[in-house]
Write a structure and sequence with these properties.
Mean pLDDT: 89
Strand content: 15-25%
Largest sheet: 4 strands, mixed
Radius of gyration: 17 Å
Shape: globular
Order of helices and strands: HEEHHEHEH
Number of strands: 4
Strand order of the largest sheet: 2-1-3-4
Length: 136
Amino acid sequence: MDDFKYMRMAIEQAKIAYSLDEVPVGAVIVKDDKVISVGYNRREIDNNAIKHAEIIAIEKACSVLDSWRLDGCVLYVTLEPCMMCMGAIIESRISKVVYGAKKVNNYFPGNNFQIFGGVAEDVCLDLLQSFFKEKR
């Protein structure tokens, strides 16, 4: 089964992260049975909170395909994606996600931030609607 073949590749990426003292998560993106990108966690190396394996693989895939739309692509990742990565997966239109280990901690461990919505909502919404109306 191809899922195992590509997951083994993602595991190899996770092993690279491990060897670099990063959290060992690896990702592979496949389109039409061809690997188009790989990635592994680089948060410590790059001192960048968003450098998760999935984000790196998505950035590379967009570059390879010369498009932000990754329709028809499958993401293989060794750990269930976090909320940030799920947002990137949804926004990039990846068609399928296959992951290895299930996350065991909750998505907001120890965070104490506040979220406020609806501030100047009508202006923000009007701007977005105008943009897309002109595009269509």
